[in-house]
């Protein structure tokens, strides 16, 4: 896997994924998302991260349709990831949700389809408020077979996982006909997930960092530590390299061979976040950034997603 000074990383099966993508997770308003996505595509983003759960696939689909039908971009120019939602994490619902995402996005295929989270809940229809309340019986091996069928059917080029731990990934890999090509997990400089990343890299699994800037603007109930982007160390390095704190954080990930999907709806930041390919953080400064590791307290995501979920045997984060 090479990424140092260019914008593409090679995935395990030879597919290429641009090393910086646009995160769209908290963009639920169509005008904001359309403006952001148009700006992002205009300035060179070619990787979009969405999910059925973000409820914005249809907005993205409408923007993409204009770009493709005007001939400004071809479908194969853009790498699009979407995710099987938690109520879809059941062997009987993978194909249905895959098709819903493709319909929303107005696409014949996505580049990468991820299982969003290792625990599935009962599904009562898309609009139901009960969808995230009750854990269902699910079987990762059977679900993975259904994911493989989506590749066979040409609905996705590659399949992968999000928020799975090493034990869960190993179990899937043992019986997989098509190995997971990607793991998307929370990573920021104070939450480094080194063991899991090393495991993935050894097994040819590309790692994508979500919340790569530590989600500084998001009002997260789970936040136990101050956003690391405001730390003195990051600030000093930003000055030293004549870059912004965000660029230091993203460059740190790239130099660790990690793809990142930062979210911003501001044009200046969109430009900043993708302009990280033409400088290099020195080995010593990389080591000093490693020291920012904050352990479990730095994790931001998924506590309390489903009532009682932390006690479920497949809860991924306490292994
Ligand atoms: N797989 C999963 O379970 C999962 C979970 C969470 C997120 N994700 C994905 O990861 C993406 C990114 O994660 P995230 O949105 O949680 O966090 P993030 O990208 O780390 O941070 C986004 C926040 O940082 C601000 N920001 C962006 N660029 C900046 C810069 N250069 N300097 C300072 N602040 C900056 C943004 O504000 P402005 O918009 O105002 O610039 C926004 O509030 C999501 O959009 C989603 O696609 C996946």
Please give a handful of descriptors for the protein shown:
319 residues; alpha/beta; TIM Barrel; 8-stranded parallel β-sheet; two-stranded antiparallel sheet; disordered N terminus; binds NADP nicotinamide-adenine-dinucleotide phosphate
Description:
With 319 residues, the chain is α/β, with parallel strands linked by helices. It has a single domain (8-311), classed as NADP-dependent oxidoreductase domain (TIM Barrel). Helix content is 34%, strand content 13%. The protein has helices at 30-43, 57-70, 94-105, 140-152, 166-175, 194-202, 232-241, 245-255, 267-274, 283-290; strands spanning 8-10, 16-18, 22-23, 47-49, 79-84, 110-115, 156-162, 182-186, 206-210, 259-260. It has an eight-stranded parallel beta sheet with strand order 3-4-5-6-7-8-9-10. The protein has a two-stranded antiparallel sheet with strand order 1-2. Helix 1 packs across helix 2 (57-70) and helix 2 packs across helix 3. The longest helix has 14 residues, at 30-43. It is globular, with a radius of gyration of 19 Å. The two termini are 27 Å apart.
Percentage beta strand: 5-15%
**Biggest sheet overview:** 8 strands, parallel
Q: In CATH, what is the class?
A: Alpha Beta
Bound molecules: NADP nicotinamide-adenine-dinucleotide phosphate
Mean pLDDT: 94
Low-confidence stretches: 1-5
Strand order of the largest sheet: 3-4-5-6-7-8-9-10
CATH architecture: Alpha-Beta Barrel
Report how far the terminal alpha carbons are from each other: 27 Å
Helix content: 25-40%
Distinct helical segment count: 10
Count of domains? 1
Shape: globular
Number of strands: 10
CATH H-level superfamily: NADP-dependent oxidoreductase domain
CATH topology: TIM Barrel
Give, in order, the helices and strands: EEEHEHEHEHEHEHEHHEHH
Structural class: alpha/beta
Binding site for substrate: 116
GO molecular function, one term: oxidoreductase activity
Site (Lowers pKa of active site Tyr): 83
Active site: 54 (proton donor)
């Amino acid at each position: 896997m090479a990424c140092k000074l260019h914008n593409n990383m090679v995935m395990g099966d030879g597919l290429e994924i641009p090393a910086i993508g646009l995160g769209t997770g908290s963009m639920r308003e169509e005008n904001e998302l359309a403006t952001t996505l148009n700006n992002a595509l205009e300035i060179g983003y070619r990787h979009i991260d969405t999910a059925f759960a973000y409820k914005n696939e249809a907005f993205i689909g409408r923007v993409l349709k204009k770009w493709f039908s005007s001939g400004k971009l071809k479908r194969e120019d853009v790498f699009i990831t979407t995710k099987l939602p938690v109520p879809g994490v059941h062997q009987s619902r993978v194909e249905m949700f895959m098709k819903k995402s493709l319909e929303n996005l107005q696409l014949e295929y996505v580049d990468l389809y991820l299982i969003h989270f290792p625990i599935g809940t009962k599904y009562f229809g898309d609009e139901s408020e009960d969808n995230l309340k009750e854990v269902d019986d699910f079987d990762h091996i059977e679900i993975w077979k259904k994911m493989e069928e989506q590749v066979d059917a040409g609905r996705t080029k590659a399949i992968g996982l999000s928020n799975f731990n090493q034990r869960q990934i190993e179990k899937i890999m043992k019986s997989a006909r098509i190995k997971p090509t990607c793991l998307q997990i929370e990573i920021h400089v104070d939450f480094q997930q080194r063991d899991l990343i090393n495991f993935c890299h050894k097994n040819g699994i590309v790692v994508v960092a979500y919340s790569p800037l530590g989600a500084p603007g998001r009002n997260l109930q789970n936040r136990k530590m101050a956003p690391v982007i405001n730390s003195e160390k990051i600030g000093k390095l930003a000055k030293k390299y004549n870059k912004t704190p965000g660029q230091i954080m993203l460059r740190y990930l790239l130099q660790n061979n990690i793809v990142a999907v930062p979210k911003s709806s501001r044009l200046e930041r969109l430009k900043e976040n993708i302009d990280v390919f033409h400088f290099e953080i020195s080995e010593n400064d990389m080591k000093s950034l490693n020291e920012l590791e904050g352990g479990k307290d730095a994790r931001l995501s998924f506590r309390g997603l489903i009532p009682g979920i932390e006690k479920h045997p497949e809860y991924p984060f306490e292994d």
